[in-house]
Amino acid sequence: MHLAYPAVLSALLFSTGLYGVLARRNAILVLMSVELMLNAVNLNLVAFDVWLSKTAQDTLHSGQALTLFTIAIAAAEIGIGLAIVLAVHRNRGTADIDRLRDTAETDSAETDDDGTDDDSEPARHAPAEKAEATA
């Protein structure tokens, strides 16, 4: 097989993942798009490893080893990412990135100039009390 086929497929997958990261508003879809980009890189690593092993006498298969390392890192990243998204969804009630950004800006606007909170202290602890009551 020629090297151009997996390279073009990898470029298409990477560009699709990049579009998903830039255009999506849901945090889980953004994580899925990042995984798509990592899989495109893995495809490129394996394709170039096979292509270079045909020309070299001693084959180390370093591209395939790096691909396994990338898959392990991606598995850890998706596990931690989903845990963070679930924790944020439980606290805020949404996984929409724009709403989370607006909420963070609203929380920082409620503080005074000296960094202390104004009279919004009981409202800020209400979700924690609600979570303790349901647990």
Task: Give a concise summary.
With 135 residues, the chain is mostly helical. It has helices at residues 4-23, 27-55, 62-92, 97-109, 121-124, 126-134.
Plain-language structure description:
With 135 residues, this protein is mainly alpha-helical. It is 79% helix and 0% strand. It has 6 helices and no strands. It has helices at residues 4-23, 27-55, 62-92, 97-109, 121-124, 126-134. Helix 1 runs antiparallel to helix 2 (27-55) and helix 2 packs antiparallel against helix 3. The model has no long low-confidence stretch (mean pLDDT 82).
Name the features.
6 helices, 135 residues, mainly alpha
Explain the layout of strands and helices:
Blueprint: H1 4-23, H2 27-55, H3 62-92, H4 97-109, H5 121-124, H6 126-134
Helix pairs in contact: 1-2, 2-3
User: Structural class, please?
Assistant: mainly alpha
- Using only C-alpha atoms, the radius of gyration works out to 22 Å
Encode the helix/strand succession as letters.
HHHHHH
Strand content bin: under 5%
> What separation lies between the terminal Cα atoms?
58 Å
Instruction: Identify the quaternary structure here.
Output: single chain
How would the global form be characterised? Answer: elongated
Biggest sheet statistics: none
- Low-pLDDT regions: none
Mean pLDDT: 82
Helix count equals: 6
Annotation, overall tally of beta strands? 0
The helix content is over 70%
